[in-house]
Amino acid sequence: MGETVYLNGEFIAKDEAKISPNDRGFIFADGVYEVVKYYNAKAFRYQDHIERLNRSLAEIGINYTQTNQLEAVFNVLLSRNSKLNQQAGIYLQITRGADTRVHHFPKDITPTVYAFTTDLVSNTENLEKGIKVISADDIRWHRCDIKSVSLLPNTMLYNKAVEEGAGECILVRDGYVTEATHSSVCAVKNGVLITHPLSNLILPGITRKVVLEICAANNIKVEERLFTKEELLEMDEIFISGTGSEITPVVQVDNIEIGERKPGKVTKLIQEKFFEMIP
Ligand SMILES: Cc1ncc(COP(=O)(O)O)c(C=O)c1O
Questions:
Q1: Is the dihedral of CA 268, 273, 274, 276 positive or negative?
Q2: What is the CA radius of gyration of the chain?
Q3: Ligand 1 mean position, distance from CA 20 (Å)
Q4: 85, 118, 151: which is the final residue of a domain?
Q5: Residues 168, 270: one domain?
Q6: Looking at ligand 1, which atom is closest to the CA of residue 49?
Q7: Are residues 107 and 137 in the same domain?
């Protein structure tokens, strides 16, 4: 049996899944997405993901009111794809739907809803040893708070990282570190955790939110503030956080080694507390 996917109310074989070439997701990248991680069929921070999805949908005016039914959909997908006893991801995408190609939002259009399972397994080596990242100019738009499928800048920048043998690309806008192509960025200086404040320039990362909760519970001081790339290179510790990356230490940025080129104390503590919260 091949892979089962969910498309517009139906569970079907991936080979059978068809969408219109006029789908605005295809034509305009007019849609939003979420990735939820499951640990042995238990979702991590499910409600946070649905709240962020609802917000993304509202921000771009897609009228899809059935997000409360998605949990059951995801469970069927995990079961049909034999992913109940392992780590797995669910990718969900909702686009505005198909119509003639017009720039305004057509009225009475039915959203396209597509979901599938992914192999989202912790990268133990990266978690233990840390990764090298590159840095680059943040060439994205000014609504990075929306989890939009319009990810060409992210893919271009991440591809550059891969070509250079790095694990992520940290983004710098007007001299300040924002986040990375598919993860949030946190740094530690003199025991204080520093991260870009929530704004239109970064995605409100759910793992980032969990990190801030861990800091609050463990008396780690937090500064949500702007910091420059020069400051970043002088940090004692750096890590990226994300649904896929979990808490991954960063031990090198471009050609500069961070700390002693090994995961720092605060990073390791946050990582440990994070894994204690896994369902
Ligand atoms: C641009 C960007 N920032 C941050 C994150 C991390 O968000 P989360 O922790 O919710 O996975 C992601 C995740 O895909 C992302 O794409």
A1: positive
A2: 19
A3: 28
A4: 118
A5: yes
A6: 10
A7: no
